[in-house]
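does this look right to u?? NAP version
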Amino acid sequence: MQRVLIIGATSAIAEATARIYAERGSRLHLVARSADRLKTITEDLRIRGAAEIGHGSLDVNDVSAHAAVLDAAWADLGDVDVVLIAHGTLPDQKACEASVETALAEFATNATSTIALLTLISNRMQQARRGSIAVISSVAGDRGRSSNYLYGSAKAAVSAFLSGLRQRMARHGVDVITIKPGFVDTPMTREFKKGALWAKPEAIASGIVKAVDKGRSVAYLPWFWFGIMTIIRSIPEFLFKRLSL
Ligand SMILES: NC(=O)c1ccc[n+]([C@@H]2O[C@H](COP(=O)([O-])OP(=O)(O)OC[C@H]3O[C@@H](n4cnc5c(N)ncnc54)[C@H](OP(=O)(O)O)[C@@H]3O)[C@@H](O)[C@H]2O)c1
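got this back:
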């Protein structure tokens, strides 16, 4: 039976992923900032077959609370096989351009908080010498674009951090998996018009669980985003700066 810790557990992608683990009969420990949402999700996961479900409450920007929340998660699960970090926001790029405070606050939610959590989590997993750490980054981190480069730069920081962490943890028997979804139909993207490139959270969740099971390093979800981002990364700067993306 797998013991799974999910941070940002009220995210639509995280919830869909938790359902898959629940259907496998896993033990879950869910961390999020909304106690009410967690209660509803927990009831659903119990019906779906989760062995046991523990809770933690956390605003990820309260870095001083991270250690206690993780202590409680480890105390609840005993040992942890899979960690999924899923929280995030989609910042208003224009607001980030207008305000240093907004830009840094959004960077903190999408990058610094994740780096802080990973620092504590990786030290614990290193001691155990086993397990998987999966983190939801984004294809947006592959190249900064004028329409959302605050978000993109935060996700790029997370992806680069994970790349180094993966190399370090490989020597200690721990898999580190960078999840790079493309466009996903969730509350985060409620305002966007959806088209052919859009995926449902359930499809992303199934890709996350497969990537963890197989010990993959980087998973573009759905897979075709690997091709799209290879093309976008290869556009020379002199051309790229004239495009509106
Ligand atoms: N949707 C996409 O197109 C897409 C594409 C690529 C990557 N991603 C990434 O996928 C991950 C999951 O997002 P989603 O699409 O599932 O969106 P979502 O349903 O809106 O989930 C975002 C989650 O982040 C949590 N969160 C935000 N700020 C927080 C804070 N300060 N402390 C604690 N939790 C916080 C939210 O909690 P509350 O419910 O309390 O606000 C919510 O549970 C994110 O990392 C996102 O960047 C999404």
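Residues 100-128 form the longest helix (29 residues). idk if thats expected tbh
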